[in-house]
Amino acid sequence: MVIDDIKFNEKGLIPAIAQDYKTGEVLMMAYMNEESLEKTLETGRSWFYSRSREELWEKGATSGNTQEVKEMFYDCDGDCLLLKVAQKGAACHTGNRSCFYRSLGPADDSVKAANIGAVIEELYMKVGDRKENPVPDSYTCYLLSKGIDKILKKVGEESTEVVIAAKNESKEEIIYEISDLIYHLTVLMKYVDVSFEDIAAELLNRSR
After folding, report:
1. What Cα–Cα distance (Å) separates residue 185 from each residue in 143, 156, 180, 181, 193?
2. 71 pairs with which residues across the strands?
3. Is 106 left (phi over 0), alpha (psi -120 to 50) or beta?
4. Which domains occur in the chain, in start order?
5. Nearest 5°: phi and psi at 120?
6. Beta bridge partners of 28
7. Which residue of 5, 41, 139, 174 is surrounded by the most CB atoms within 10 Å?
8. Quick one: which H or E segment has residue 23?
9. pLDDT tens digits, the chain, 208 residues: what are they?
10. Rounded CA separation 65/55 (Å)
């Protein structure tokens, strides 16, 4: 990216949007000046400019909720930046993962369901949390505690259920059983320390 192509406003600033590079979730918006943009490009971490304090600040330097910048883009007019980041912890100072947690209208679950990557990533993170922080009466914790043989048995059972559902030609049944299979595969992946990012990389290799 050529900084000369960037159009800073009359105060020498440009809005920068941070987006989760895995799920596409919009995390926050802050401002950059030329110096903070250069530091971001040099360090691979998000640096912004505080209009109230009139100084540079590194995201997460105090809280530990850092952002590793995976990719950066600028829009067609050159007056807005997009950072695709790996967010550690919460992006918002309120403790919410995203600064955009307040809705102006009724929530629409179909919007969230349309982003399959975000749904699967959330499931993977939830399974990981159960692994690190077991809770009573959790089916996920039960599977993880029983170990690989129990998990593999369930994966095998759910795979068979998918086959039966497909043979029955019932869309509702197929959706239900595939969801069960994906859940149990996610538990297996977390148990053996395989991420969906690993799977995506392999699928990309196969598509070349």
Report:
1. 12, 10, 9, 6, 12
2. 84
3. beta
4. 13-87 (3.10.20.810), 109-207 (1.10.287.1080)
5. -70, -40
6. 18
7. 174
8. none
9. 568 889 999 999 999 999 999 888 999 999 999 999 999 999 999 999 999 999 999 999 999 999 999 999 999 999 999 999 999 999 999 999 999 999 887 777 666 666 788 889 889 999 999 999 999 999 999 999 999 999 999 999 999 999 999 999 999 999 999 999 999 999 999 999 999 989 988 998 998 7
10. 19
Dist. CA 8–CA 185, nearest whole Å = 47
Q: Which amino acid is at 82?
A: L
CB 16 within 8 A of CB 27: no
Please say whether the beta carbons of 63 and 41 come within 8 A.
no
Please tell me the distance from the alpha carbon of residue 70 to that of residue 88, in angstroms, as a whole number: 13
Q: 115 — phi, psi (to 5°)?
A: -95, 80
Q: Do residues 48 and 117 make contact, with C-beta atoms less than 8 angstroms apart?
A: no
Please say whether the beta carbons of 72 and 1 come within 8 A.
Answer: yes
